[in-house]
Design a protein that fits this description.
By secondary structure, this protein is of the alpha+beta class. The protein is built from eleven helices and 15 strands. Strand 11 and strand 12 form a beta hairpin.
Length: 299
């Protein structure tokens, strides 16, 4: 019997043409003899038990429908296998997961999580230079701002985030990221696949560079220090999953993206770890589609 794989997505109106990976991934899986569908997560007509494996790809409208998505995840995981593992996804949606990495000695950009306006004011005042303010749960750098010391926009954005019932994340601005961008490392089943460089996104004062979220992506080669830190992150995920009693599937992500801030490749720090719904950036690393198929076959 042919295995049926579902690459989970959302409707075209929500994607707005941003998903450039699911088509090539579907083609690569089919060439390998697998049956492939691209179901929309909120489509009530889908029989989730008809898939042998669901791979989370691009449910990129989840952040505005978080409770609905979590309910879907519970239902789907009762009738079929989901990767990455549901426990890992629930943990990764909120950037407070960074505290777990820090507890294991993984170097991360210093981060303060705030649930009141007073906490935000103290966190911002404690930083001597520019700061980044954003929600702990967000996608696509939504509601993310870069602010100079004393800019009232930081407090205004934080209060909007708090009013929406979310936690505020405050970080010192990594100036080499603000001016030069960041490096993202991609792993399949814990093995390094490819890396890409993401150009600067944020403009001072709370907006996007260029006026809209349009990151400039190019292929790159990670430094030895960056690659070593990426592997440290994957090892830490296994330890975190084991410590929290997650299922075995959660201890080795099928896919993982590790975003790093580093000055010319030296002394890198983790900005973000994405094991939920990252873009694979196959347009700059088309060979990664083959690595993805091999990883799926290995699971």
């Amino acid at each position: 019997m042919t295995t049926t794989i579902g690459l989970l997505t959302t409707d075209a109106a929500a994607l707005r043409g941003r998903d450039r990976d699911t088509g090539p991934l579907s083609d690569a899986l089919r060439r390998d003899g697998l049956r492939v569908g691209t179901p929309v997560w909120h489509d009530p007509a889908v029989d989730w038990s008809g898939y042998d494996l669901l791979i989370i790809r691009t449910p990129w409208d989840y952040s505005g429908r978080a409770a609905e998505f979590m309910a879907w995840l519970d239902r789907a995981s009762r009738v079929t296998r989901v990767l990455n593992a549901p426990e890992l996804i629930r943990w990764n949606i909120d950037k407070r997961y960074l505290d777990d990495f820090v507890a294991l000695g993984v170097p991360c950009l210093p981060t303060t999580f705030c649930t009141t306006a007073e906490q935000v004011d103290r966190a911002v005042a404690s930083l001597p230079a520019r700061v980044v303010v954003k929600p702990s749960v967000s996608a696509g750098s939504r509601d993310t701002g870069l602010f100079a010391p004393g800019d009232p926009g930081a407090a205004e954005l934080a209060r909007r985030i708090l009013a929406a019932g979310k936690t505020v994340l405050v970080q010192p601005a990594a100036e080499h990221v603000i001016t030069g961008g960041e490096t993202a490392l991609f792993f399949f089943n814990g093995d390094f696949s490819h890396a890409f460089h993401k150009g600067p996104i944020l403009a001072p004062g709370g907006g996007y560079a260029g006026g809209s979220y349009q990151p400039r992506i190019s292929g790159t080669e990670p430094s030895g220090a960056e690659l070593l830190l990426g592997k440290q992150v994957l090892a830490a995920i296994a330890d975190i999953a084991a410590g929290r009693g997650f299922a075995d599937d959660a201890r080795l992500p099928l896919y993982a993206r590790v975003d790093l801030a580093s000055d010319r490749g030296e002394t890198p720090q983790v900005l973000e770890v994405e094991v939920f719904e990252p873009a694979y950036m196959l347009d700059v690393a088309p060979e990664a589609a083959g690595a993805f198929v091999r990883a799926v076959r290995a699971r």
